[in-house]
Amino acid sequence: MTDSIFSQYRLERPSHESLLEALARYVGDDEAGDEWNGACQRAGVDRLLADTAPEQLMAVIAELEASGGHLATCAKGLRIRLMTYTVLARKLEQTPTPADR
Known about the structure:
mainly alpha
C-alpha cells in the first residue's frame, strides 16, 4: 500500500542523488558537489551507497547545517523534505488497509 500511495503522489524516497540535486538548485552544481561530499565525509557516510538509511542522510544534512550561512539555510529545506517523507512513510505503514479491517 505504501508504495502505491507514494507513487500516486510522485513522492520518492530521498537519496544521496535527489538531495544533492536539490542542493544544486540552490547553490550550483560545483558547490553542491563539494559541500555534499565534505558533509558525507564528516558524517562518516559512504556517498556511494545506493540505499542509505534516512538517519545517515540526516547526519549529512546536519553537517551541512553546521557549515552555517547559505548552506545551513539550504540544509533546512533538505531536512524538511527528508523528515516529511519519513513521517509519511511511518504513518502509511501504521494505517490499516481495507483488508485488515
